[in-house]
Amino acid sequence: MLPVVEAREAPVIRKPEWLKVRAPGGENFMRLKGLLRTLNLRTVCEEARCPNIGECFENLTATFMILGDICTRRCGFCAVTHGRPTGLDGQEPHRVADAVKVLGLEHAVITSVNRDDLPDGGAPIFAATIRAIRETSPGCTVEVLIPDFKGNWNALEAVLEAQPDILNHNIETVPRLYRVVRPGARYERSLELLERAKRFDTAMLTKSGLMLGLGEEQDELVSTMRDLVRIGCDILTLGQYLRPSTNHLPIVRFYHPDEFQELKAIGQALGFNHVEAGPLVRSSYHAGQQARAIGGGTPLLPKD
User: What would the pLDDT profile of 111-161 be if each residue is shown by its tens digit?
Assistant: First the structure.
């Protein structure tokens, strides 16, 4: 394991065969790209250079990214542009809802950049987006992948009052690596957010995810999983960290698919209701299938 201070100087490791994906394309891929441009919408799939974009877009699924395309934080793993954002788009929730309706989605996933420039972190836009989808697509379940709002629990409550079906907030990595991987975030604050969400509505599913390959040890991973189970987290995703560019944190190691399955078994034994694990797994990968799996094979019903 490399010390944190030397992480950016780690040697480049060749990508293994099991991490290769097909180039994106296809009729549905182009249709979804066109719809996003027409409605002036963004997806984290594009902004964060997700390796699954070809598969997901071809299946007419995407994770909508609201609150602009400039993030106020500079996490060591993330490809989203960082800097000083400007303004808010009050019509964005309605355009997202229009896209969900046009695509006929059964499960919609909404995320955002961090907006630390706003006292409420943009929480009202999250809430408005959930409500707009409920109004135009009442049969669609809604999952939100939210930032930590800098510990503004009133902002969190504003999102929760809109009653998402799944509240996702990624823990991302183990506590020891936070200073380099998630500057501006705090491990304890992320745990508290998930715990508060579960206390607010015990029927709502909570979810979190970890990237692997940044220098963590297995005992640290297991300890983090235990922390998540302790605060009532229902769903866990485990995926391989992939370096977006040479300006981002290097990959310390690649995990074999068999190792992901071993960690999945550990997570299930610890008490998660569902664990999605694999080299290409991301927090919203197969999100609809996860919701159906934990709901007993049928889609979750939106709340009244």
Answer: 998 899 999 999 999 999 999 999 999 989 999 999 999 999 999 999 999
For residue 188, the Cα-to-chain-centroid distance in whole angstroms is 18
Any alpha helices (H) in the chain, and if so which ranges?
A: 27-38, 44-47, 53-58, 92-103, 123-136, 153-161, 178-181, 187-200, 218-230, 257-270, 287-294
Tokens of 174: 């183990």
Tokens of 303: 């709340």
Note the pLDDT tens digit of each residue in 56-82: 555 556 678 899 888 888 877 777 778
Give the integer Cα–Cα distance in Å for 203 and 1: 40
SS3 239: strand
Q: Which two tokens stand for residue 70?
A: 């400039």
End-to-end CA distance of the chain: 49
DSSP state of 172: B
In this predicted model, what pLDDT tens digit does every residue of 213-234 receive, in sequence order?
A: 999 999 999 999 999 999 999 9
Residue 129's SS3 state is helix
For the purposes of burial, counting CB atoms within 10 Å of the CB of 225, is it exposed (0-12), middle (13-18) or buried (19 or more)?
Answer: buried
Ramachandran class of 215: left when φ > 0, alpha when ψ lies in -120 to 50, beta otherwise: left
Torsion-angle region of 258 (φ positive above 0: left; ψ -120 to 50: alpha; else: beta): alpha
Half-sphere exposure of 39 (CA within 13 A, CB side): 25
Rg (CA), the chain: 18
Tokens of 223: 């300890």
Compute the distance between CA of residue 47 and CA of residue 65 in angstroms, rounded to an integer. 9
CA 23 to chain centre: 22
Calpha distance 80→114 (Å, rounded):
10
Mean pLDDT within 257-278 = 96
Q: Among 208, 200, 211, 265, which Cα is nearest to 234's?
A: 208
User: Which two structure tokens, joined as six digits, stand for 169?
Assistant: 């907030």
Specify the fold of 32-294.
TIM Barrel (3.20.20)
